[in-house]
Amino acid sequence: MSDPSTTTLVLMVLAAVCAGWVDAVVGGGGLIQLPALMLGFPLAAPVQLLATNKLSSICGTTASAATYYRRVRPDLKTAIPLALLAFCGSLIGASLVSQISRAAFNPIILVVLIGVGAYTLVNPTLGRATDLRFSGRRHLLAATGVGFLIGMYDGALGPGTGSFLVFALVGLLGYAFVEASAKAKIANVATNLAALVIFIPAGAVMWKVGLLMGLGNLVGGYIGARTAVAKGSGFIRVVLVVVVGAFIVKIGLDVIGQLS
Q1: Are 89 and 151 in contact (CB under 8 A)?
Q2: Alpha-carbon distance 134 to 173, whole Å?
Q3: pTM
Q4: ∠ CA(78), CA(82), CA(87), 5° rounding?
């Protein structure tokens, strides 16, 4: 593949800034970044696009995780086991990526997204304050189970991982949106790192593109995390609904295309 033009690189960096901001607030930056990579590099192999997306994303998730940690101080007794199991799940998912058909996942993910969006809309108080559903060992088991399953999805496919993590931590475990976003970012760093452990030795990363996009993603992630903490749970809820709605439209069109 020939070197990309300056115009292409600038557009990729701008897309990465936007993706980093969205990802830091509520996850779902891949909805912006992966389509941008597909448009900018139509001849690249899917694994190259996924690997380059992960390199860029880890820069933004690391910046936003650090910002959330400084400002929110999430409970690491839950966040670290969550991240460790997410790492393991992502390793498995990334190792299976060449054997998984995205078409098989799209209808399932579409149903899940519609459920997430509907549940969030009909529960206006959801995520305003932390009200944990479980305690002790049951809480840890639920958190690590969420981390492993969503981590596996992230390694194999990716887009929407942050949104799924946030919603699971809010809807299933009972965290407020800000606390959930902080923990989700820590777990997201782990899933991105695990995927890169698989992708880098395979030579799948487009380094020049990925590092430049990573810089943009880092800036977007830092700004997004500060915005989310300053605006609070109500703001994050609104962004979650918008991002999930965009996912429903995108994946719904993919499913229609598969059936036609």
Answers
A1: yes
A2: 7
A3: 0.84
A4: 155
What does the block give as tokens for 42? 């139509």
Distance CA 3, CA 26 (A): 33
Domain ranges of the chain: 6-259
Segment holding 109, helix H or strand E: helix 102-122
What is the C-alpha R_g of the chain?
Answer: 17
pLDDT by residue, tens only, the chain of 260 residues: 568 889 999 999 999 999 999 888 888 788 788 888 988 998 888 889 889 999 999 999 999 999 999 999 998 999 999 999 999 999 998 887 666 565 666 677 777 778 877 887 888 777 788 888 888 999 999 999 999 999 998 887 777 788 889 989 998 999 998 999 999 999 999 999 998 998 899 899 999 999 999 999 999 999 999 999 999 888 888 888 888 888 788 878 878 887 77
Instruction: Please identify which residue in the block is written with the tokens 């839950």.
Output: 78
Alpha carbons 160 and 154: distance in angstroms, whole number? 8
Residue type, 184: A
